[in-house]
Design brief:
Elements: H1 2-14, H2 22-34, H3 39-42, H4 45-48, E1 73-75, E2 90-92, E3 132-140, E4 149-154, E5 157-162, E6 172-175, E7 191-193, E8 202-204, E9 206-207, E10 214-216, E11 224-230, E12 233-237, E13 243-247, E14 251-254, H5 270-275, E15 303-304
Parallel strand pairs: 13-15
Antiparallel strand pairs: 1-2, 3-4, 3-6, 4-5, 7-14, 8-11, 8-14, 9-10, 11-12, 12-13
């Protein structure tokens, strides 16, 4: 009796619309209160690792969302951890979970052999004195990302960085961490703190935490816009129209990411998708319903990063 009641409770939790009698509902509530991870044992692998490509309806509340961008391939970095500009080998995962080997994304797999170039997303410069100047020696296509990359060097140091649109071989890129009283005149490819740029500047490779490297707007042709400044924070509008508030010390690169026409290039043949590592999708015809229509939603509120609220004053209770 207890075993059948347990199975009914778990089944009613997975299928929300099929709740049974009051006794089953109470048993299901007790299960969740005592053992919240019990659903992971009863959900099949097919529902546990569902596809991420191609959109689709949102996942049910009991299905954990798969982590994106970890099922295609992974690079093998040097064992000593030192940065290098040499091409590094790549291990293909074929849409499988690295730990278990089970298929998570059915539309990933195969593709042409490729090598990984270690791109440095940190553009840090001195806060006092002359900026760091780097010369562009080479701009090339990168098979592991949509944007082009540039090989820059300064003194005895060289590295790969994301190429800005309009940057060509022989250009000098400057990086500084100084925030002047009057905004600077921005030049494409240069890196400045957000507080040093004028309002309306197009930027990419934006830091969220000062010193951690660029995080936002790194895909081909993407850029954000600096909208306004409030105290020590800068409001930036992302390509999704989401506004974020960042500390003025966060670094950003002026201009748009290179390879703007990436999404306008036609595939041309089904075999080219296989060269790119994309397997064919289902050929079934799917009816489009109201979920696929256009939605008019209000813009989300400003998302704050790096904001530390003021500490609450301590309240002393005096007794006599």
């Amino acid at each position: 009796m207890a075993t059948s009641l347990l199975n009914q409770a778990v089944r009613s939790l997975i299928h929300i619309k099929s709740f049974g009698n009051l006794q089953t509902i109470q048993c299901a509530q007790q299960l969740l209160s005592f053992e919240p991870n019990i659903l992971s044992r009863y959900i099949s692998v097919r529902f546990r690792y569902r596809k991420i490509r191609g959109g689709g309806r949102p996942l049910p509340w009991y299905v954990p969302k798969p982590t994106p961008r970890i099922y295609g391939w992974k690079s093998i970095l040097p064992s000593d951890g030192k940065y290098t500009t040499k091409p590094l080998p790549v291990v293909k995962l074929g849409g499988r979970v690295p730990e278990t080997g089970r298929v998570a994304v059915r539309t990933l797999g195969g593709g042409h052999k490729k090598l990984y170039r270690w791109v440095d997303n940190k553009r840090h410069g001195p806060t006092v004195g002359q900026p760091v100047e780097e010369k562009v020696f080479h701009v090339r296509y990168d098979p592991c990302r949509t944007a082009k990359i540039a090989l820059v060097a300064s003194g005895s140091n060289k590295r790969w960085i994301l190429a800005t649109d309009g940057v060509k071989t022989g250009d000098i890129l400057r990086t500084t961490g100084h925030i002047p009283r009057i905004p600077v005149r921005p030049k494409e490819g240069d890196a400045h703190p957000l507080g040093a740029l004028p309002i309306g500047t197009l930027i990419h490779s934006i830091e969220v935490v000062p010193g951690k490297g660029g995080l936002f707007c790194r895909a081909a042709g993407s850029c954000a816009q600096l909208l306004r400044k409030v105290d020590k924070f800068c409001i930036v509008q992302l390509p999704s129209k989401q506004e974020i508030s960042l500390p003025e010390e966060c670094m950003a690169v002026v201009g748009r990411v290179s390879n703007i026409d990436y999404n306008k290039k036609p595939i041309g043949s089904a075999n080219r998708n296989r060269w790119l590592g994309r397997r064919p999708r289902s050929g079934w015809w799917h009816r489009k319903d109201g979920y696929c229509g256009r939605k008019i939603k209000p813009l989300p509120p400003v998302k704050e990063f790096g904001y530390v609220p003021d500490p609450k004053p301590e309240i002393y209770q005096l007794t006599f």
